[in-house]
What does this fold into?
Amino acid sequence: MTIQIDVGRSAAVNDDGYHEFKLGEFTFRRDEYFVYIGWPTGQHMMGADAFLRALQRDVAWDFFYGIVNFDGVFGTVNHYGTVDIFAGRYNDSYRRAELDYGENVETPAIRETFKAILDDWTNSSFDPFASPHETGSAFGLKNGNNTGAVTRRRVAAQRMVGVQGDEQVRSDESGFPVNRMFADVDQSEPVIEVEPGFEGEVAAFSLFAYLSRSNVTWNPSVVSVCKDSLACPTTEEYILPIIHGNDRVEWFIQLSDQITWEVEDRDTGAVRSRVVMKAGDVSAMPADIRHQGYSPKRSMLLVWENGSEKIPQAIASGQAPTYPVEF
Ligand code: PHB
Ligand code: FE
It folds into this structure.
């Protein structure tokens, strides 16, 4: 049985060639430069490029862990089955003025609506996953589409990359060339000498060579899964297109170059700290903050997540702390 989901798409296109969309009481409209989000008590504008980059991540990550702030006003909260869509909820000024608004919707409804907006509003010249320097313009009148790019899925290993049967992106034949900023990354692979009987069980690969071929930015792939421990390396350039409010502690290991993290209070947006991470630095982001990273050159970052579904509730109820270690 297929269930038809109403994605709230307008029958006609507007003057700039784009459809308009409705989800609950939220309305979505774009023109050449901007996206306009409306709700019963207010409205909000975002640049179309920033909006599409954030929307692309929210869709590809299926609403991610916790909160995906598109900016200081608009975003989503994942309840893993349902999603809150909100305006001003994590913004002190909106809250005080009682202008904040939110709705809880079934995940399939928001997933399909967001996918439809992303596809309709992304022109052929724009790839929301690419670094700004490696893609064309998001702006202008409706001009074709880029369905291949916006439906690309992140690579997820079942065990570890390199073990038989898992996806590999590790050679010139893969069709993924080494990125211009990683031209100096050694491409040699480790030599593995396996005891007879363990072929197919033991594997090793160069994570640096693997990441040097990533053609997307700010899109963690899952290269190893060990129970709830998820190793999610990624390549970063320019600005993380969302401000992430996590529902659990998250570890960062800076593998190359440098990222500056702006860290704010998760609920009010008040500034908490600026963390400058250089190659080799390790940090743990607490569960009561939100953060956005800035990477002046393409860099490699290992994000380490505990994927346990028990954690958000344990932290929200105070049973588990918002920070990872007691010194
Ligand atoms: C994060 O929110 O922690 C995050 C998201 C995407 C990345 C890196 C970090 O590429
Ligand atoms: Fe995060």
Q: What stands out?
A: The chain has six helices and 16 strands. The CA atoms of residues 133 and 303 lie 24 Å apart. The radius of gyration is 21 Å.
